[in-house]
Amino acid sequence: MAEQAYPKRTIKVFSALLIVAAVVFYWAWGAAYDSWNIFAAENMGVYSIFVVLLGFGILGLLVAKYQH
Question: In whole angstroms, what is the distance from residue 59 CA to residue 63 CA?
Fold first, then answer.
């Protein structure tokens, strides 16, 4: 069997870092600008970055879980 390009542990650590980065980014932006409303039109860019970071983190954890 061929060796995997990325071990499961590397994928899990990177995915966890993406999730942490998303939460820290959301918290820091909200605290700095007192802007916690996800539905405000002027904050859509910030929240789209949050969703992308969080989504890739969760996707990475799922890939690591089901990787053979």
Answer: 6
pLDDT, position 1 = 54
Taking the model in full, what pTM does it have? 0.85
In this prediction, residues 34-59 reach a mean pLDDT of 90
Token output for 17: 């870092």
CA dist 17 to 1, 30, 63, Å?
Answer: 30, 20, 15
Contacts for 33 with CB less than 8 Å, ≥ 6 apart: none
Sign of CA dihedral 48, 51, 57, 61: negative
Residues contacting residue 42 through CB under 8 Å, at least 6 positions apart: 35
Using an 8 Å Cβ cutoff, are 29 and 35 in contact? yes
